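Service request form, structural biology core

Requester: graduate student, group of Dr. S.
Request type: structure prediction, single chain
Budget code: on file
Notes: please return the result as structure tokens.

Sequence provided:
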Amino acid sequence: MKYQELVDVYSALEATTKRLEKTEIISEFLKKLDSDTIEKVGLLILGVVFPAWSSEEIGIGGKLVERAVAEAVGTTQAAVEDAVRDEGDIGLACIKLYAKKSQMTFFSQPLTIDFVFNSLRKLSTISGSRSTNRKIAVILELLSQASATEAKYLTRTITEELRIGVGDGVVRDAIAQAFDIDKAIVERAQMLTNDFSVVARTAKEEGAEGLKKLNLTPGTPVKPMLAQLAPPLDEIIPEMGCAICETKYDGIRLQVHRNGDEINIFTRRLENITHALPEIVELFDEYLPHEDYIVEGEVIATRNGKPLPFQNILHRVRRKHNVEEAMENVPLKLFLFDVLYYQVPMIDEPHEGRNSGKY
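Core staff response, request fulfilled:
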């Protein structure tokens, strides 16, 4: 399918602020797609090419995109920078610059969704010597064949600023509407996979029953359940029957996955911070079973056995270099409070059962 067809959808979505209209636009588009294409559109409609939990990223800065645009339209990078400053956005700058494009691309083929998606993913794999030039070459291949409107959304996707007013909720509702599936079923499937490419393809191919089969997989983080406001204790405890209470520390929520011999640690925003917490990885490797599992907990920074302010743990998880030095300066303490997966998914088991030692 031509990329221009997706671009037309982007344009229609950008032209309305009404949620129901956006849902309808995406829903009608999804109905037309084959299985391979819907998998890619499930991500591209949100302006990404990797699911939220993935550590892979396009990783291209604005200046590099401006340089590629300059080469594509036959102007200077300074002129592109001026256009971005005038228009306030790289996408709108492309509309302006492509109108004055001085170079012609001969024998070019229309861009396809498949080619765009694969090319953007390829950018994450380029590293080493001359990687900047090789990344420029990939972007330039796309922009040289692009129309003005295609360039508008290509550059916005590369810089992760699609600006069409579409979030997870709209995509969820559009998938449900396109394939006549209860929204709650789509929402649960998305919560457990965090990947609209999987959800969209499964909805198309297998419908509601297929989505119900999707479940937790070690290595793929699940969106954590967050605290909610509740009525006063004298009202809520009789309603619940019992309550489990714990100290609230000023730490960071962790979700720890073991998949085979690999251990990964994710934050509640699904960021992989395994590299920053090697001592926590060692704890899990030493004390927990060497079987697949997903557990949740919290880690805090300590000194002389006392909790430290939040910025100390934040300093640790953001550290990319000199981690060993940080380990000495900011010791950590781990608290676990839930088991989501142990050999099999346990998300539907009662909390008491998951954490009583029964498993």
